[in-house]
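Deliverable D5.2: sample structural annotation.
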Amino acid sequence: MEKWFNVGKIVNTHGLKGEVRVISKTDFPEKRYKTGNKLFLFLPNSHTPIELTVKQHRTHKNFDLLTFAGYENINLVETFRDGVLKVPESQLTDLAEDEFYFHEIIGCRVLLPSGEEIGTISEILTPGANDVWVVKDKTGKEILIPYIDDVVKNVDIGKKTVFIEPMEGLLS
């Protein structure tokens, strides 16, 4: 069974020529939205994805705007609203050392050098200069860990563990 990964969500149309507004969920919009790439649209209440080919990509404000081949009219894309764009696992590319896909990091246990467990990574925020990993401790409290070399010392995807060296005040 094919495993799918979210790339973005279509939140609206844009103009009359079939552009859609996408809230992107990918670290690689330049790769995912490249002209000619295949994306798969999963609409609410539908189990069969629609295969789409990217015709054009541009950014506008905080959105990625996409046009798909064969869908160059607003009437053809209005039904795409609230659909989720995904790629199959076979389209994932190898990453450089010390780069990770979100799905590889979410669910990792976060440990101190002593081996004491802080919690589990539940979410990744991408506010700007560096990612921030949201760690939920045993009580459900959220701890924000910046993904920077001074803090994150070791990531072992195979063991689903992350060792951190917290800066002063990070855990208080």
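Annotation notes: The two ends are 44 Å apart (CA to CA). The first helix runs from residue 29 to 32.
The annotation will be released with the project's public dataset once the embargo ends.
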